[in-house]
Amino acid sequence: MKLKGFLVGFMVVFLTLLPSGAFAKKLIDEDLLYYYGLNGIYHYNGAKEKCTAEEGGNQNYAGESVWSEAELEAIGENKAIYKEAADKYDFPWQVLAVFHSMETGLRRYNPGNGQGVYQLYSYTNGGTNENAFTPGPVDEAEFKRQTMIAAEVISSSVGDLNESDNVKKLFFKFNGMSSKYVQKALELGFSEEEAKNGEGSPYVMNRYDAKRDPGSSEMDGNWPGRYVKDGVYDAGSTSMVFGAFVKYEALAGSVNCTDHGGDIVETALLLSWDGHGHSKDDPKPEYEKAMKEVGTYSSPCRSSGDCAPKGASCDVFVSTVMRYSGSDPDFPVFSPAAQKSYMKSHSDKYVKIDAHDVSDLQAGDILVAVDNGRHIYLYLGDGMQASASYNDRTGEHFSGVYLSDNGGSRHYSVYRRTS
């Protein structure tokens, strides 16, 4: 089957709401989520991958794009977590990405109904049992926990999700297998088995082809009709939002996610040697490759004319990590002082942390010398740092994190990438 593409613009939550469902029941502030989608507002968690449409991809049967660049970027940021959870239960990670998009607009945020990021209705008994999720923003660990729960629930719901019919059935079951949608599919000419897989559900199949596309002059007269809120079916209603299976097929077959080593911490580990002992002339092969790819493969030189070997400079190492991870492709290459000035002046990207102790730090934080601007390094968590040193050593990671050094004569400011 030819893969379909996606719609430009961000329509966050599909309003095919049912009075009951095997998984979910939506009680989301859709106006708020729609606002976030239109304005590209997402929770930043350190861009893990860069997702882009392949040549000729990200289009539906009519040639219309579906996933916006902002959506693809958000998916790229979350992909590592989707994939870890999906791999555990042996199904495509794109299933989780689509559910996240359909249910909470790719946001790391628990709506007020207690059903969490993935709107797990049965698991939380409609947000009323001990599994209910606390409303509000969720951090990386909580998002991963909820994704693992969703993957476990999904894996036991239908058959092998590596088969497309079962993916359709999963989406249909998640939204609630309404008899009205089964009847709609039969009237559209589908078999009884196909009807039970969700061919008549707008949540699953909207805009999959011309006869199920409200924007097409060839739309079948049987296609209008959907649930617009809990228990309310509007026989004449349609939506221009793409169905979950349409999104799934396009994401699974028409979008590339390019791995650049992971988030800030993962990339720092990838590009640095484990432990001390690697000289200024010995960059890790992955680090050398990354420098060449992101434009940091050059020798920093001081005003005295002293130049460091490629990669043996703290500023170049941090810049390479920030650029190669996708966290900040514009991060300055040279001079910790210039890098500090950049972070200070870009409050849209960085926040200065009032750190009094190492316990105030978070993995991925950037520490830069306040007094003389002569050093910068990355905190990896668990008392580990990743850094290089001018004309002395290339990138390494090792134990030892400090807010001041040189006998207390050099102090560090802490900056955190936020958006």
Keywords:
419 residues; alpha+beta; endopeptidase fold (from Nostoc punctiforme); 2 domains; 8-stranded mixed β-sheet; two-stranded antiparallel ribbon; 14 helices; 14 strands; 33% helix
Q: How would you concisely characterize the structure shown here?
A:
The protein is an alpha+beta fold and 419 residues long.
Can you describe what's shown?
By secondary structure, the protein is an alpha+beta fold. The chain has two domains: 30-259, no CATH class; 264-417, endopeptidase domain like (from Nostoc punctiforme) (endopeptidase fold (from Nostoc punctiforme)), CATH 3.90.1720. It is 33% helix and 14% strand. The chain has helices spanning 30-38, 69-88, 94-104, 121-124, 140-155, 164-175, 179-187, 192-196, 202-205, 244-254, 264-271, 285-294, 314-324, 336-345, and strands at 49-53, 109-110, 136-137, 226-229, 232-234, 255-259, 273-274, 350-353, 366-369, 376-381, 384-389, 393-399, 404-405, 410-417. The strands form four sheets. Strands 7, 8, 9, 10, 11, 12, 13 and 14 form an eight-stranded mixed beta sheet that branches. The model is unreliable at 1-22 and 24-48 (pLDDT under 50).
